């Protein structure tokens, strides 16, 4: 039986349902925080959304219908293309999204997908969503007398899609041409270079007095950007882009998103200080 909890994101009350299949967050209620007339179907018709959902399902759903997915993917982004959550789930046997009726009626998404949807609302909204979800899980953990490591949980969002890498809360520098021509054996170092301008090995060499590795020193802003970079890089790999091209795209993405998050730094720091 699903357990229902409520979290509040900047005045918007959002339902979180938890059961044996994990945590699911109401997209219908999240949508109330977006300015203007928008619908979940608007998000679902976006090509990047469809590709992300397809990768998530391929990792988590053995029964995913790739044939139907290929048809939907070929139509995504066209002016006359439109698909509902019900049609998406029925055609592809998807499990990440679900439309429900009754007491907890609406569209719900697995927490992995809900965080991705949060970025569509706004970068700031996603930060608050992650923060409140963290608080909820910590409260549950305290009641159960168990530990809940938020950083590790968040990094599992895209665990099989990608790996992670983290450093200081700084806007990344634009990479020099010499960096883009190098071949990085580990895809994690592609993200390291895009976000921090160095590989994991270089970071370790510069921080011999620190335990762990580069991914153990994360801020919540970095986790937000990293999560988006992981998803984007997975899509670019899927689209057969060369590593040098992906590195440039990821570097620009990191710069833009960190600037956006840092522009809200005062509000975010005030939120984090309430821990």
From TrEMBL:
**Domain KilA-N span(s) in chain numbering:** 3-136
Q: What is this protein called?
A: KilA-N domain-containing protein
Name of a matching Pfam family: KilA-N
């Amino acid at each position: 039986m699903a357990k229902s909890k409520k979290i509040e994101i900047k005045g918007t009350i959002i339902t979180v349902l938890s059961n044996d299949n994990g945590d699911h967050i109401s997209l219908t209620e999240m949508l109330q925080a977006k300015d203007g007339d928008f619908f979940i179907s608007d998000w679902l018709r976006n090509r990047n959304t469809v590709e992300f959902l397809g990768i998530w399902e391929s990792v988590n759903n053995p029964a995913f219908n790739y044939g139907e997915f290929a048809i939907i993917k070929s139509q995504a982004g066209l002016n006359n293309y439109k698909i509902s959550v019900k049609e998406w789930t029925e055609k592809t046997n998807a499990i990440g999204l679900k439309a429900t009726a009754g007491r907890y009626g609406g569209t719900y998404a697995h927490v992995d997908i809900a965080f991705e949807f949060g970025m569509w609302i706004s970068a700031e909204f996603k930060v608050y969503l992650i923060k409140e979800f963290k608080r909820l899980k910590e409260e549950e953990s305290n009641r159960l007398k168990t530990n809940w490591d938020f950083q590790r949980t968040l990094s599992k969002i895209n665990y099989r899609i990608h790996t992670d890498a983290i450093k200081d809360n700084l806007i990344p520098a634009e990479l020099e041409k010499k960096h883009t021509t190098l071949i990085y054996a580990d895809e994690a170092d592609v993200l390291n270079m895009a976000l921090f301008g160095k590989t994991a090995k270089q970071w370790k060499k510069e921080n011999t007095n620190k335990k762990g590795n580069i991914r153990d020193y994360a801020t919540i802003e970095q986790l937000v950007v990293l999560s988006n970079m992981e998803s984007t890089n997975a899509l670019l790999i899927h689209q057969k882009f060369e590593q040098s091209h992906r590195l440039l795209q990821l570097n620009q993405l990191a710069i833009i998103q960190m600037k956006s998050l840092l522009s809200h730094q005062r509000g975010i720091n005030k939120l984090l200080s309430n821990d």
